[in-house]
User: Fold these one by one.
Assistant:
Number 1:
Amino acid sequence: MSEQDKALVTDYLKEQNRPWNALSVSLNLHKKVGKTAAERILEELSKDDGPLEELINGKQKVYYYKQAADDGDNAISEEKLAELDDKIKDKKNEKGKLDEECSTIKREVDLLESEPNDDDLSNLITQAQEDNQEKRSKISGLKASAGSITPEEKKKITHNFDKAVSLWRKRKRMANDMIDKILEGGYPKKPKDLMADCGVETDSQCDVDIKEFL
């Protein structure tokens, strides 16, 4: 392991300015330095204040040339570092804006995809037209049948309807009177509990209002 071999390996890593393992160094130098010799040189030059830095990734070791502050063309000044930091911040800001634009576009795409396409709209229009035609047919049938009711039949229907409403009012009044008397007799629960116990359903529970039929 000569000084010439050390210089050859050092100059190569400095020129390449990227990590290499011992085998790659040996091959890239066209075996001017053998693999075993390259391993020893790399390990030695990465110790203490040597010019190389060692990185271990699992079982693999790679080495790169240290970027010293006074390293000629490879040196990076404070101004250059500050400039790079500013560029990184700018790129991050650009990425944030692009992410927002992508999110907006994705929401718009999702909204468009949720809307019916031309085929769906055509089917919906056809279905609506068929429904309208069916309803028109029913209305026409009802209009035609309405004229077939005689005055006597209409009078009979009205009489039966008024009789049913009158009976409804009477039974409602009787039920309310009965509930009031039971409550006055000392029933321990609330009126709604009493009606539930007796199986009585109110008009509101049946979703009807007798005033609509008077």
Number 2:
Amino acid sequence: MAARIEVTNVTDEECKFIVSGTELGIANCLRRVMIAEVPTVAIDWVAIEKNTSPVCDEFIAHRLGLIPLKSEGVGRLNFPRDCSCDAVGCTNCSVQFTLDVYNASEDKMTVTSAHLLGPGGEDCEFGPATDRSGANADNKDIVIVKLARNQHLKLRALGKKGIAKEHAKWNPTAGVQFEYDPDNALRHTTFEHPEDWPKSEYSTLPADKHEADFDIRAKADRFYFNIESCGSMRSSEIVKQGLHELKNKLIMVRDSLQTLAMPM
């Protein structure tokens, strides 16, 4: 039986789908690949030119690294380790950002991800992934630091392509929910008081029953996923890229086994 994917709900932020016709190990591989091996862009190098804010340079660099950047065009960038510039940072493997904010007023000024400007300004292909639509668009920007009067923050930064296996800042997901035994018939976990646990949305039990009877012959054959994007990619794109990366890994395994099976 061939593997089958049934999409039950999809938005830019969330994608729910059910995988059937495959093994638990393969389904779990897909979960891990979507978290750790789908490439995105994140800030990986920061040069602070002036900082008179109350927050030290290291804290600011850390905050910049965790700002999600739009990454659906990441395919045109090289990984720094594979680039001809020897990971120095060129237009083929990195995106340059600048931030220069001076507070000349008496009021406190909030420096946010909106002040982080890449090539093309607000229209930058890899700019901060904040939602600029709606009445409260300004409140959706990510706070970096607050400046009092006459305080100044000026810096340069490079966004680079990477995967979350190297650092969590490249993780495209905010969360990946994965479920394969909604009524606990396999007993892969033990509930001392099943009635105290919330029922899964995929449960098929009647309202007055809280746990399925143990079935020693049962086997996981339906896997329920809920992918939540951090904003760097649409949820559907994360799934597509995850499937692409998993396919490449399985092809490498197949080719290696065929090579080993060849007569010497």
Number 3:
Amino acid sequence: THTHNHTKQHPPSTGATQPGMEPTVPITSRDELDPGVQEILDQEGNNHCIDCDALSPDWVSLNLGCIMCLRCSGQHRNLGSHLSKVRSLRLDYLTRDDLALVRLGGNARMHSMLSAASLLGRPIAERYASAHVRLYTLQLEAELAGLPVPQELTEEQRIEVLQNQMARAPKKVAKPEWTPDRDAKQCQDCSAAFTVTRRRHHCRRCGKCVCEACAPKKNSRPIPELGLQQPVRHCRNCYRSPAVAFKDGKNNVGKI
């Protein structure tokens, strides 16, 4: 009777381990599922693909912590490994940390987050390039490391999300019609008259001449489709940064 050898072996090494770094320990077998992998597949929701609901998925996104079928894994690969790092639960070596993060996440938790963010049913590329999913992955990483769990993205992380979205869905946008200073006697948003202290500013998205209250300096983000890679000023009608408290009370509704 053939007996499987369950002794865990290190993958072939191509060089010396760096000081302070533990070697990667493969804990899946190419002959049969490791108990740790089977435990993940037995979790609630993990018996169906996160994206198409197909039965018995055996592919995983290591950073998203969710399980998917072979067909959907191809779409995840097309996103790029910075958005979804795809591996096979049966064919690839996975580390203890890999499985720990997937165990912490799982399809049920991912599904709940996507539902709350109204992302279910959206195209895969749009769904997993969203700010909500980026925050979710950071929260998983923090929980796994025992660190404080972030409740929102930093401004730098929001810009990174925006750049990823724009890179995947480039749009040709006509340059806005710029309102000359001499033609703007008052803010084109709130109608407040410009004075020595209430100065004119331009929204780089729509070109309107607006006041500081309607277009604070902090209300900025890049516009890659216009060739503006660095954050530039926007009026409150074109974008609302979560870092700005607008006087009309409508905050945190910026299009991420």
Number 4:
Amino acid sequence: VFHFLASAKGLELEHQVRATFPYLRFRVYHFDENLVRDRISSSIREALEQPLNYARTYIADIVPECVQQVIYLDSDIVVVDDIVKLWNTDLGSHSLGAPEYCSANFTKYFTDTFWLDENHFKIFDGKKPCYFNTGVMVMDLNKWRSKKFSRVIEQWMDVQKAKRIYELGSLPPFLLVFAGDVQSVDHRWNQHGLGGDNFEGQCRPLHPGPVSLLHWSGKGKPWIRLDSRRSCPLDSLWAPYDLSMPFHFVLK
């Protein structure tokens, strides 16, 4: 079952998906942007300040309580493998599973203000935190609800509004709560960065290794580049699936 999260035009989205995939089992949920509007701080890129980027924080609150596990997928993704393989990830004691990138410089995701305050950085005591991309996550919603992770993330967003402890939108609060406590997933399940960096959005090749999922994270979105006739080579893989309307969805 697919669960689509939309902040506007939910009925239009439902009609479009049903017309394109008449066999698909899905539901569309309205995401109330007022949940986060007053908590969002400025980011290095304006698009990262859009409230719908924060919808993943509230998945456990939005979908029915009978939904115990989901795969969260951003809207700039094409899956090219059987996603049941990702669904079968054994999370063990973890609340979340995702590909981790431990060679990335983890310190750069937070400001000096954060790293100079022991009350903040001690959150990582006893852990080996690694960067992970929040565009693809296997989530145990039972654990999420019992540990009230939505509220914990909101608390870090409130700290951010007061002290400016990060620059990168909705990602850092997830790192603060989960980094060092993530079930690692094979990198093939998030070939991210195909949209370039957050400033230039330049073309990028695939990372070495097998590919199960293509992710156009970064500034350059394939639907914009295709419409402007300034596409990158890998954008041709997006074109057959373009519904001309970005949204977020989760798979039960």
